[in-house]
Amino acid sequence: MADEKTPKPKIELGEKDEPSSQAQHRPDEAEASAGDAVRHGVNCVSAWVSRTFPGHEKAFWGGVIGLLAAVVFFAIGFWRTLVIAVLVIAGVAAGQVLDGDPKIVNALRHIFVRNNQ
Description:
- Helix content is about 75%, strand content about 0%.
- The protein has helices at about 20-25, 25-50, 55-75, 80-100, 105-115.
- With about 120 residues, it is mostly helical.
- The relative contact order is 0.04.
- Keywords: Membrane, Transmembrane, Transmembrane helix.
- It comes from Thermophilibacter provencensis.
């Protein structure tokens, strides 16, 4: 029985009086409802962090990011983690350049220009 897959429950996002066939024909409303649900969940977590750690929200999120980095480091190793970090930073820098606000590029330029003078 462990090999058998159980069917996933279907969630209806339409009105209660509305037949399920009509609810399936409106993907825009379903996507909007899913987006609203995600936003609501993020807002709930953010409110919990603000209530639980008042004035230290950024320290909490820094700790969460540090924990995730440690898990990745121990799961895949130092060099792979370093490559992922460098590629993520390069991607963010490229996105900032395309947005017209290259903070990372300017910071790197400032570091290397200061050392050369």
